[in-house]
Protein backbone atom coordinates (compact mmCIF):
# COMPACT_ATOMS: atom_id res chain seq x y z
CA UNK A 1 0.00 0.00 0.00
CA UNK A 2 1.21 3.45 -0.83
CA UNK A 3 2.29 5.58 2.22
CA UNK A 4 0.01 8.48 1.18
CA UNK A 5 -3.10 6.32 1.62
CA UNK A 6 -1.96 5.22 5.04
CA UNK A 7 -1.28 8.81 6.05
CA UNK A 8 -4.65 9.93 4.71
CA UNK A 9 -6.43 7.28 6.79
CA UNK A 10 -4.52 8.42 9.87
CA UNK A 11 -5.42 12.06 9.23
CA UNK A 12 -9.10 11.15 8.76
CA UNK A 13 -9.03 9.28 12.06
CA UNK A 14 -7.61 12.33 13.83
CA UNK A 15 -10.26 14.52 12.21
CA UNK A 16 -13.06 12.30 13.53
CA UNK A 17 -11.55 12.42 17.01
CA UNK A 18 -11.37 16.22 16.89
CA UNK A 19 -14.92 16.47 15.51
CA UNK A 20 -16.17 14.18 18.30
CA UNK A 21 -14.44 16.26 20.98
CA UNK A 22 -15.87 19.50 19.56
CA UNK A 23 -19.39 18.04 19.46
CA UNK A 24 -19.14 16.79 23.05
CA UNK A 25 -17.85 20.17 24.23
CA UNK A 26 -20.66 21.91 22.36
CA UNK A 27 -23.28 19.72 24.01
CA UNK A 28 -21.73 20.33 27.44
CA UNK A 29 -21.74 24.08 26.80
CA UNK A 30 -25.43 24.04 25.86
CA UNK A 31 -26.31 22.03 28.97
CA UNK A 32 -24.28 24.42 31.15
CA UNK A 33 -25.95 27.49 29.64
CA UNK A 34 -29.45 26.05 30.06
CA UNK A 35 -28.82 25.16 33.71
CA UNK A 36 -27.29 28.57 34.42
CA UNK A 37 -30.19 30.33 32.71
CA UNK A 38 -32.72 28.44 34.84
CA UNK A 39 -30.81 29.31 38.01
CA UNK A 40 -30.54 32.97 37.01
CA UNK A 41 -34.25 33.05 36.19
CA UNK A 42 -35.04 31.89 39.74
CA UNK A 43 -32.73 34.58 41.15
CA UNK A 44 -34.40 37.29 39.08
CA UNK A 45 -37.89 36.18 40.11
CA UNK A 46 -36.86 36.21 43.77
CA UNK A 47 -35.26 39.64 43.37
CA UNK A 48 -38.37 41.16 41.79
CA UNK A 49 -40.61 39.51 44.39
CA UNK A 50 -38.52 41.18 47.11
CA UNK A 51 -38.60 44.52 45.29
CA UNK A 52 -42.38 44.43 44.88
CA UNK A 53 -42.76 44.98 48.65
CA UNK A 54 -41.18 48.43 48.35
CA UNK A 55 -44.10 49.85 46.35
CA UNK A 56 -47.28 49.24 48.36
CA UNK A 57 -49.11 52.19 46.74
CA UNK A 58 -49.01 50.39 43.37
CA UNK A 59 -50.91 47.46 44.87
CA UNK A 60 -53.63 49.78 46.23
CA UNK A 61 -54.12 51.38 42.81
CA UNK A 62 -54.56 47.98 41.13
CA UNK A 63 -57.32 46.83 43.51
Description:
The protein has 63 residues and is an all-alpha fold. Helix content is 89%, strand content 0%.
- Topology, number of strands: 0
- Which percent range describes the beta-strand content? under 5%
Approximately how much helix is present in the residues? over 70%
Give the helix tally: 2
The structure class reads mainly alpha
Q: Outline of this structure?
A:
This protein is mainly α.
Question: What topology emerges from the helices and strands here?
Answer:
Elements: H1 3-51, H2 56-62
Characteristics of this structure?
63 residues, mainly alpha, 89% helix
